[in-house]
Amino acid sequence: MKKVLIFQGGWEGHDPAGVSERFAHILTKEGCDVEVYDTLDCLKDAEKLCGYDLIVPCWTMGEIPTEYTKNVCLAVSRGTGLAGCHGGMCDAFRNDTDWHFLTGGQFVAHPGNDIEHTVNIIPSSSPITEGIKDFSICSEQYYMHVDPAIEILATTRVPLANGCHATNKSCDMPVAWTKYWGLGRVFYLSVGHNAELFRDTPEAELLMKRGMLWAAEGKSFA
Q1: Which of 56, 125, 159, 216 has the fewest CB atoms nearer than 10 Å to its CB?
Q2: 151 pLDDT exceeds 90?
């Protein structure tokens, strides 16, 4: 049985309690033993973190003690997976560049706020995207700064909204990606503003479920 740690909190606008509850339900149905915490102090014991198969952050903005980030980095380097969505992982701890390096990217803007846009699935051998077709979604279209080493699984075309950035050429922005950190696997999905989005968009929920389960398998291949 896979052991999973979910920690939730930070800015309430991203529905951390609702999203973490939905993810916990998904993972429990897949046979995982899930623990949910509403404090960052669950990250203070490095050796305990190393005992989990997967860590799922649902914590937007805020600050994290440097030692806690080091503990998560250590656990992932030893094979513990890391998976998250939207602001819960890649708009967490804006001042912590080690966190950004670990996760593979950082939110910087969402021009137009909630807008209809298309998520384009990139042809790949990844089991995360197998059988999933391009889909439309109405949510914040994240503009990200990303690690060039990530493997991009899905993109969206920007800009689609007015703003100073629109005078630049249009570009394809990563929406879903994977990367490795030592022996560990990392997955991120930039959509997921609240729990209702996953309820109403089965493709997004399937990507998230597969991404979490993929990341949780890191120790099996270590």
Answers
A1: 125
A2: yes
